[in-house]
Amino acid sequence: MNVLIVEDEPVVALDLSATVQHEGHSVCAVATSGEEAIELAAALDPDIVFMDYKLEGELNGLQAAEQIRARHRARIVFVTAQHDLATRGDIMASEPFAFIPKPFSDRAVAEVLNRACFAYGRT
Question: How many structural domains compose the chain?
Answer without folding.
Answer: 1
